[in-house]
């Protein structure tokens, strides 16, 4: 019995380690809702196998393997299309835009005025009048740009060769405009871009895969 528990616990720990490696290096506060589901389901499988003798090691191995395949498939699928990525990972919400509260996004994220004020105070903003932009990130944190900072958040238009048409529409632009801007910067194919950002008043910033590192680069050892 004790040997059975030891083996199951070891396999469960190995499975958890594998899923962490699949998801990548993230702090707990940076986990998306789907990341949390991964761990909750795995924890439930491990707990159920430990305290139910009728669940054999073979059953646990099969469950871990199946769950690993599902996690890997979801992670790969989320990288193929923008819509799938937004559904699985979520997307940032602009709560305050150019000093004005975005009531639609506040309601969508179930944030009332007092909650918003509390989030802003954590960034040293004790009045909403001081805030130019407030963005609710996908991990639940809020990023704030004060009016005295004279900065604007960048808008991601291309993510790993994929055009975000919904974002283009939200800024009243289209793919034709995007391609013209990229051609002026010397970029031909959108599919070859690692990313493309647009900053209002400043323009387009982009980088192709060839302009980024594809090598092991270690700081120590």
Description:
This protein is globular. It has three domains: 87 residues, no CATH class; 58 residues, 2-Layer Sandwich (CRO Repressor), CATH 3.30.240.20; 57 residues, CRO Repressor. The model has no long low-confidence stretch (mean pLDDT 82). With 221 residues, it is an alpha+beta fold.
Task: Indicate the overall shape.
Answer: globular
Report Rg. 22 Å
Distance between the termini: 43 Å
Instruction: Give me the oligomer status.
Output: single chain
Helix content: 40-55%
Order of helices and strands: HHHHEEHHEEEEHHEE
Number of domains: 3
Low-confidence stretches: none
Q: Give the percentage of residues in beta strands.
A: 15-25%
Largest sheet: 4 strands, antiparallel
The count of helical stretches stands at 8
- The largest beta-sheet arranges its strands as 2-1-3-4
Would you tell me the structural class of the helices and strands? alpha+beta
Q: How many β-strand runs? A: 8
* Rounded mean pLDDT score: 82
Helix-strand layout with pairing:
Elements: H1 2-23, H2 33-50, H3 57-78, H4 82-89, E1 93-97, E2 100-101, H5 103-108, H6 113-121, E3 131-136, E4 142-146, E5 155-159, E6 162-163, H7 165-170, H8 175-184, E7 193-199, E8 203-208
Antiparallel strand pairs: 1-2, 1-3, 3-4, 5-6, 5-7, 7-8
Helix pairs in contact: 1-2, 1-3, 2-3
Keywords:
single chain; 221 residues; alpha+beta; CRO Repressor; 3 domains; 4-stranded antiparallel sheet; 8 helices; 46% helix
Brief account:
The chain is an alpha+beta fold.
């Amino acid at each position: 019995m004790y040997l059975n528990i030891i083996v199951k616990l070891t396999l469960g720990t190995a499975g958890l380690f594998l899923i962490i490696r699949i998801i990548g290096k993230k702090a707990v506060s940076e986990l998306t809702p789907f990341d949390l589901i991964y761990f909750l389901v795995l924890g439930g499988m491990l707990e159920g196998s430990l305290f139910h003798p009728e669940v054999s090691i073979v059953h646990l191995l099969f469950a871990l393997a199946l769950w690993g395949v599902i996690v890997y498939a979801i992670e790969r699928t989320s990288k193929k299309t923008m819509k799938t990525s937004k559904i699985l990972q979520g997307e940032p919400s602009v709560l305050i835009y150019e000093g004005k509260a975005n009531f639609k996004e506040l309601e969508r994220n179930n944030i009332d005025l007092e909650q918003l004020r509390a989030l802003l105070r954590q960034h040293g903003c004790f009045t909403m009048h001081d805030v130019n932009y407030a963005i609710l990130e996908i991990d639940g944190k809020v990023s704030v740009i004060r009016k005295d900072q004279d900065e604007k958040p960048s808008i991601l238009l291309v993510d790993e060769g994929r055009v975000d048409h919904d974002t283009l529409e939200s800024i009243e632009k289209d793919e034709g405009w995007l391609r013209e801007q990229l051609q002026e910067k010397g970029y031909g194919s959108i599919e070859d871009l690692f990313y493309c950002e647009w900053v209002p008043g400043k323009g387009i910033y982009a980088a192709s895969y060839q302009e980024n590192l594809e090598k092991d680069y270690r700081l120590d050892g």
